[in-house]
Amino acid sequence: xxxxxxxxxxxxxxxxxxxxxxxxxxxxxxxxxxxxxxxxxxxxxxxxxxxxxxxxxxxxxxxxxxxxxxxxxxxxxxxxxxxxxxxxxxxxxxxxxxxxxxxxxxxxxxxxxxxxxxxxxxxxxxxxxxxxxxxxxxxxxxxxxxxxxxxxxxxxxxxxxxxxxxxxxxxxxxxxxxxxxxxxxxxxxxxxxxxxxxxxxxxxxxxxxxxxxxxxxxxxxxxxxxxxxxxxxxxxxxxxxxxxxxxxxxxxxxxxxxxxxxxxxxxxxxxxxxx
Amino acid sequence: xxxxxxxxxxxxxxxxxxxxxxxxxxxxxxxxxxxxxxxxxxxxxxxxxxxxxxxxxxxxxxxxxxxxxxxxxxxxxxxxxxxxxxxxxxxxxxxxxxxxxxxxxxxxxxxxxxxxxxxxxxxxxxxxxxxxxxxxxxxxxxxxxxxxxxxxxxxxxxxxxxxxxxxxxxxxxxxxxxxxxxxxxxxxxxxxxxxxxxxxxxxxxxxxxxxxxxxxxxxxxxxxxxxxxxxxxxxxxxxxxxxxxxxxxxxxxxxxxxxxxxxxxxxxxxxxxxxxxxxxxxxxxxxxxxxxx
Lengths: 275, 293
Description:
Chain A is mostly helical and 275 residues long. Chain A contains 13 helices and no strands. In chain A, helix 3 (68-101) runs parallel beside helix 6 (142-148) and helix 3 (68-101) crosses helix 10 (196-212). Chain A is globular and about 75 Å long. Chain B is mostly helical and 293 residues long. Chain B has a single domain, classed as MetI-like fold. Helix content of chain B is 73%, strand content 2%. Chain B has a two-stranded antiparallel ribbon with strand order 1-2. In chain B, 39% of the residues are buried. Chains A and B meet through helix 1, helix 3, helix 4, helix 5 and helix 7 of A and helix 1, helix 3, helix 4, helix 5 and helix 7 of B.
């Protein structure tokens, strides 16, 4: 092709300049609040052991590790998020396979249920979930939060995994079964390696949505097992050490940013809602 | 065609069991509570549809509904065109488009209750970067008492939070368009706008309606962010549907809170149903086009 490809907003140099300008504005807009957070996190906003208020120092980060509730909360968050990712993947993989390979009575209705649960706001279910979970002694434990986050994460995992499984030809399964593989062995030996990027993307979305959720996480951790988000809430009081709050916020961002880095080449693939 | 086999339900069983426990049982509980006066959980008193009557006859409910709809409309009007526009520019960009995508995804991994804290820090007139700049320019930004400023802050903050999702989805839709379509358009001498109107937007239809759905629901039921900024104020100007519900739950009004939850859930159900009808129509249209082609 000798014809130059047209680009939005003009061709050649004009297009390039326009694009760079737009991206610069977008980057500025996204980075500004993050820069503010970082800046406050390295500022001593209250006086601590000889570090005067308003000076730059790493005292806030040091204080995180001197605070029992804060370090415990990092552990709690990590625990229920990982548990949730594991639960979602284990429950959703066979379901996604079923949707990809078979039609069955009620499949469309189940899809509708998934869609509905994905978009149901947690605040609508928070009260009965709390009462129900209290009866099963699932309050104040990471297991409870990991379970309830499946409400919106299982649908996403099923959608993502199904689109990756459907990209495999049916012969892929049939060859394995002819070779004498049982269904569980086929899953472990063939299917999971073949859709590894899909599992990565699904794990990423589960991780993120579980990590950022606060309504269920708050109502299910009244007295113990508080996640990072609630530990930060607890820092607010008569004299809030906003520098410490921001240092914790920076901490709460790190795992998510690491996850973005791992899935950067697949972030825009496989996320398709099935109805 | 996929083979029909009802044994597939066995593969669905684990997912179905978890969803029944965390979704269906709580929903049935809410439905049950919504007809009861529960001064305490062990002492229920049947009140029929009284709570529902209270909700649909209260002007406050319609005012909150109107505000929630307005907020969703503003959010969609800002974020959808902006997100699609950025995705269109990204599709023509070299390898560092990944860097832009990654940057846009960062706000998505910020815990929701941290977002208002970050933004309040940003606009603080004494310590915030934007707050100090506004003060230096002589612009008084008073999100506490000026409703217009509270609304502006909420829309800008929500755009910061969610723009990445729209861009990622729109970009996924764009990268799924086969190159042959563009070649055909180039041979026909289609203009840039025609390519957008007749190829890109229709081909992105599926993912865009998904972005629309997710953005609509999440903004319509915005809770923690709006609550943290101004607790529904000034004078109720940012009291959205979910803030009313949160208030009732916090006051332990189980019955009315359950009825309200049911009303909101019915809204969710309607939206989900409308979305599915839309997607089915979209799919039929695509199939017809493929048959015609």
